[in-house]
Amino acid sequence: MRVIVTGGAGFIGSHVVDAYIEKGHDVVVIDNLNSGRKENINKKAVFFEADIRERQALEKIIKDFKPEVINHHAAQISVVYSVKNPELDVDVNVKGTLNLVELAGKYDVKRFIFASTGGALYGEPRTLPCTEEHPVLPLAPYGIDKESAEHFIRIYAGIFGFDYVILRYANVYGPRQDPYGEAGVVAIFTMRMLKGEDCIIYGDGNQSRDFVFVEDVARANVLALDYKPRPDVLPIFNIATSRPTTVNKIFEILKKLTSYDKEPVFEKKREGEVYRIYLSYEKAKKYLGWSPSFSIEEGLKITVEWFKRR
Ligand SMILES: NC(=O)c1ccc[n+]([C@@H]2O[C@H](COP(=O)([O-])OP(=O)(O)OC[C@H]3O[C@@H](n4cnc5c(N)ncnc54)[C@H](O)[C@@H]3O)[C@@H](O)[C@H]2O)c1
User: Fold this and answer.
1) How far apart are CA 310 and CA 303, in angstroms?
2) 35 in contact with ligand 1, CB cutoff 6 A
3) pTM of the entire structure?
């Protein structure tokens, strides 16, 4: 299949590109290298440095390559930044997605796959684990914009007649995650522990998240290529482990793996952060045939080994 992966130079997108290439697909990567890195891009992919907000540049690539699938991972991913700069978040995460779905319709793309979020959509959960039916109550513009993007995809898929699959990720971690951003406690702690620097925990550390390993997420994107649409199923799937892991637990496991000898530095809880969340993946299991295969211990071990080699 001919597949465009936007954000294919980034953390998750680059693993998706690797998985697609391993399956023999032809892949074009579109990325503006805002947070992505050239060295993440698989050598067998064709790379275009372009911005999803630039309609003309996008149109030329899509017209020439004629993709059967667009897999959309490019995004402004910082929740904190989205609060400070909501317009830019709308520009990239909503208008950028709108550009892509309009062009998907115009150039006869068969399927649109979208990297959405579970963690930032459901807000503070009312029921656990959160299923895809949980009310969408985002706590920041990032979540609002991801939800808007989901609606644009669904509506344009209906208008133009292409299929779509929306994957709502929990907290993804693994090799190539940016350790300098504000997201990704695993990457941040791993890097700081390996350098012998202090690790800050905001609040008491008992807040929990659902941590899913990036290779499992890439596999969900592979399965999404072959998903058979059903009229009775909205193609929106949580990609998660359904297990809560506290930040303290992540700290303890990483501490052992990196032989770190310091205690965490506790600071005031950050406002707007969800306290406890984990997501059900029953729907993905039933309809995509996906379930997570890496335990948190296995995933963290691979991640630490990768950061050490780096
Ligand atoms: N990391 C997580 O835990 C998580 C959880 C839920 C959803 N997601 C979603 O998964 C996707 C990938 O996230 P990630 O963690 O790999 O982040 P990332 O920052 O590593 O990847 C995003 C990529 O998009 C590119 N990009 C940003 N703005 C662009 C633009 N205007 N035009 C073209 N390219 C642009 C960046 O350069 C980068 O390569 C995002 O859509 C994100 O919202 C991530």
Assistant:
1) 11
2) yes
3) 0.98
